[in-house]
Amino acid sequence: MPKRTKAHNQGRRNFLKGMTLAGAAALPVPSAAAGVQIPGNALGRIKASVPGPKLIAAETSPPADDPVTQTSCGADFMVDVLQSLGIEYLAMNCASSIRGLHEAVLNHGGNRPEILTCPHEEIAVHIAQGYAKIEGKPMAMACHGVVGLQHACMAMYNAWCDRIPVIVIGGNIIEADKRAPGADWLHSAIDPAAMVRDFVKWDDQPASLQHFAESAVRAYKVAVTPPMGPVMLSLDAELQENPIKDEGGLRIPKLSKVVPPHGDSGALEELARLLVSAENPVILCDRVARTPAGMTRLVELAETLQCGVIDNGGRMNFPSRHPLNQSFNRSIIAKADVILALELNELWGTLNAFNDRIVRRSRPIYRNGTKIVSLSSRELYTKANYQDFSRYQEADLTIGGDAEQSLPALIEQVNRLIDDSKRASFEARGKKLATAKQAAVEQAKSDATIGWDASPVTTARLCAELYAQIKNEDWSLVGTSIRLSWPHLLWNFDKPYRWNGVSGGGGVGYTLPASLGAALANKKYGRLTVAVGGDGDFLFVPSTLWTAAHHRIPMLYIVHNNRAYHQERMHVQAMALRRSRGISNISTGTVITDPDVDFVTLAKGFGVYAEGPISDPQDLAPALRRAIAVVKSGRPALIDVITEPR
Amino acid sequence: MTGKISCASRSISLTVAALASFALIAFASAQTVSAADPVNGKRVFLAAGCFECHGRLGQGGAYLYSAPVIAGIELPEESFIAFLRNAPNDMPTYSAEVLPDREAKDIYAFLRALPGRTSAKDISILNE
Which of A434, A469, A489 is the last residue of a domain? Predict the structure, then answer.
């Protein structure tokens, strides 16, 4: 621990009176480059009131055997630490093991970070996940370190697979003799984070307040360093609640973010040579764009090379209507002689066809001899138990480094190698790809016409109607249950916030709360947030709507209501047909009917404007207009649409 | 225009019913054409779960990968049935035990009768 400086060497009493004065002033201000801001409240909250007789007596009298009031608590300092990190929100479901922190956020911190009341911890984590993907920084969530964390687990796994930073705080009571009978024992653990250690990047259970300060800053730093991921701090209730003991010894350490890892310059030079000399290079991308710069850099590389880009959609990597976007023309993989994979979650799955048959089989879809290069921060951090790293894919060159960070150097190397003759051949290649792109778009439009007026509504019609209503707004699509299909085929995704990716781990119950988190981030920028989520997904976390209404978070949520857990229904169907048993029984356990869920009444019960169920496509446009008007007034709205399965 | 197709306002069921009537009349008069029943084909198409991946209108969809458009299928009937009996890739195989030839032919007739694509240019919101 660094030796205390004079500025930090305050006695407990001074800390109590003016900790926020001296402490805030002494807080090392993170560099602007690091992108962390000290919240205004931390500085504006400076108070050093003169102590009254009661306080003086309390502070100067010998300690009572059974004190009934206290004038300091560790949680106040914890709140100062969270504020110093620029954490805007604390998503949580109230819990006795974090009551000390909860109260301190409210009365010491002035509700900063702002508490988001969430009826379920899974909702809280998913809100944080969706928020981080738009805002570019983590939110904190807090819960019981045992039963709350158990609820939060799946969402943490989604965030882990999605490589998204979330700061999870779990309450605990470490000392056995301090636990009350009953709940305190049930809600305590020797090692709360053990349950989630396989899918967090780092965790700690601080034993002192200074330990907390350093661990909180470290947790933030670890979480936002690519490859990003959730982190966890277990907070002892006593540490939160009890008066501060170590007089004046507390200091909030400076946050210095890690510069994202950069690919080796020699390896990037070799990669540039491969790309420039290739006849048909193809770029695959998944979670490249960490910041708005990511998309710009990827566009620059693709345009420089005039090569096709296939976007797996983990982030808003590449404009949907760009002529080089070949995401729906994956046959170019078979013709590629060089494939560059950028931050791919599923490289093997992208380069191989796999068939789910009695005898499972697979085959590469790339040519023998194709050079495969991976540039990814994922190469730098892997864990064992959960298999989200996917099947091992052979590569000719693997560069450990953050793709977004490494792209400028790669582009520079590529530019150095391009001469006029290359430029002419690249241009011809680009023209062919543009033609293929246009053909794919026309094909999609033509396919979209099938069943245009049918009921249930086709997903193509739903997406076309929705886009017609939002295209002139500053929209942001932050969730979809219909794969990366119609919106990405038909809509113009041209800005970094138009899309924010998928769940990561495929855990159901993501779309509604993660969309709300993204909507919260979009709110301050005045964007129109829209999402399309499945009915089955919705039913895991319906009370998210209450959080939306309570916190006045504007979002248009379309329920893609096919009245089934449809993917699973198809799986059971496949099993029944494989066994020649027919499918007459497959509805059991897979459909959501009898009764049909009344999503509108459900939403209204949570205080959210709602319309539906809409089964006639002619009714969509007016309903969307009314709902968008509600959203633009600052409130959430829901439309239940009875749709085709896919 | 908000998306209504001017020339495609007939419902699928009307189309199928009309084609079925035509088929029945033709059968009664000539007794030479296939007796495949597209109305029953629609029933079986739904009951057999074909729509789960391909959509009720044969518009295509997805299971593990994209499932193709099959409205207005151009595959010959024999090839279609052979395909069902030994389906490739991720398509589940429909054995004769669960889908007799008679019903497979009805499904084929239904798919053939589906209107399929229309002109996207006539739908303004597909061109924005």
Answer: A434
For residue A291, the domain's CATH number is: 3.40.50.1220
Determine the pLDDT at residue B35.
82
The reply to whether A442 falls in a domain is: no
The residue among A411, A434, A457 that closes a domain is: A434
Task: Please tell me whether residues A325 and A412 are part of one structural domain.
Answer: yes
Is the Cβ pair A570, B63 closer than 8 Å? Answer: yes
Non-local (6+) Cβ contacts of B32 within 8 A are none
Rounded distance between C-alpha atoms, residue A233 and residue A454, angstroms: 52
Chain B residues near residue A483 by CB distance under 8 angstroms? 62
CA dihedral sign of residues A159, A163, A164, A170: positive
Verify whether the Cβ–Cβ distance B125 to A465 is below 8 Å. Answer: yes
Q: Are A171 and A162 in contact (CB under 8 A)?
A: no
Q: How far apart are CA B52 and CA A474, in angstroms?
A: 35
pLDDT recorded at residue A247: 66
Residues 1-60 in B contacting A (C-alpha not used; CB under 8 Å)? 2-5, 8-9, 11-12, 47-49, 51-53, 55-60
CA dist., res. B91 & res. A577, Å (int)? 10
| Confidence (pLDDT) at A120 | 98
Which B residues, 58 through 117, put their C-beta within 8 Å of a C-beta on chain A?
A: 58-64, 67, 69, 71, 89-90, 92-95, 97-98, 115-117
Integer CA distances (angstroms), A454 to A451, A460, B42, in order: 5, 11, 15
Contact present, A172 and A188 (Cβ < 8 Å): yes
Under the banding of pLDDT at 50, 70 and 90, the label for residue A39 is very low
Q: What is the pTM of this model?
A: 0.88
Per-position DSSP letters for A100-140, written without gaps between them? HHHHHHHHTSSS-SEEEE-SSHHHHHHHHHHHHHHHSS--E
Range of the domain at A310: 265-434
Residues A631 and A482 both lie in one domain = yes
